[in-house]
Amino acid sequence: MQTVFKNRRLVLLSVIMLAFMNMLQAQTDEDAIMMSKNNLCSGIMYGHSSWNNYWEGTLKRDNQNIGTVSTNMFSIMENYGVNRRLNIIANLPYIETKASAGTLHGMKGLQDLSAWVKWMPIEKNLKKGTISLYLLGGASVPVSNYVADFLPLSIGLHSKTLSGRIIVDYQLGKFFTTASATYTYRSNVTIDRTSYYTTTLILSNEVQMSDVVSENFRIGYRSSHLIAEAVLSNMTTLTGFDIRRNDMPFLSNQMNATTVGVNFKYTLPKISALAITGGANYTIAGRNVGQSTNLNIGVFYVVDFSPKKKDKK
User: CA-to-CA distance for 76 and 42, rounded, in angstroms?
Assistant: First the structure.
């Protein structure tokens, strides 16, 4: 019985990590905002995620023996405008995990460095509004030697990724809609054991990781000082297997999630270089993921590195 309770704890803590990592990627690399030429936007973000229900395959369940599962994230984000149509974005998170009950203790450390190149090739007037097309390419690599095969306490999957994204945005006055789709390739992961079990016994230390497809739809209000939006997101792991009944999770589980949420960005009128961001989202459907509530807040400051013009005498 003690082994069953321990395995349930592992399941609960594991799936929150995947849901939370998905939230971390849903900031400036998915919106339809571009930095001006020679401007650098630097930000610090804090995020918190917690839940006590999860899907074991398609079966939704809970566990009273682990308490509240939570994850904290502290992240540094940078966005540089090469020009008004080409931006470079980078993000580095520090993550902590813990459970409020039981004997398992969490882990903490730097996770993966991610970077995106964001290009706006099309921006045209359409009827009374403006339609824009954005193309993005991204990659991520682990920056610390954290243990991937320690789910649910691991801070990440230690897989290198390559991503491609397309975004279409239409703005009519101060109201907008944005839709995006992303395909993410994930490299295989090497673990510190010579065999493991998925749906069959595999005599290897290499785990085949599935690619991921995600979609994002936003609708909201956008002005020079305020952006407020509602967001619907979906993430689908293309292959994988379900967590077995009362078993512990594994890196190559199929993990799907649909979330709804809201975001805002407020630029201070008297300090136009300073902005405050925040948001929340909730998992409404999933497979092998936790039904998490995610909150985040951040502070961003823009520095203009454009050459200063000399005053004529």
Answer: 8
Domains by residue range for the chain, with CATH: 2-303 (2.40.160.40)
CA distances from 205 to 179, 190, 196 (A): 39, 6, 8
* Helical (H) or strand (E) element with 21: helix 2-24
Which has the closest alpha carbon to 286: 246, 263, 262, 253? 253
Residues 6+ apart with CB under 8 A from 183: 163, 164, 165, 211, 212, 213
Distance, CA of 149 to CA of 156 (rounded, Å)? 9
* 15 vs 63: CA distance, rounded Å: 14
The CA-to-CA distance between both ends of the chain, in Å, stands at 85
Long-range contacts of 28-31 (CB under 8 A, 24+ apart): 28/77, 28/79, 28/89, 29/89, 29/91, 29/116, 29/118, 29/136, 29/138, 29/165, 30/165, 30/167, 30/180, 30/216, 31/178, 31/218
Question: Tens digits of per-residue pLDDT, 59-77?
Answer: 998 877 667 778 999 999 9
Reply yes or no: is the peptide bond before residue 307 cis, omega within 30 of 0: no
State the Rg of the chain over Cα: 21
Contact indicator for 255, 18 with CB cutoff of 8 Å: yes
Helix (H) or strand (E) holding 165: strand 161-172
**72 is written with which tokens?**
């904290």
Residue with tokens 């610390």: 144
pLDDT tens-digit profile of 210-230? 999 999 999 999 999 999 999
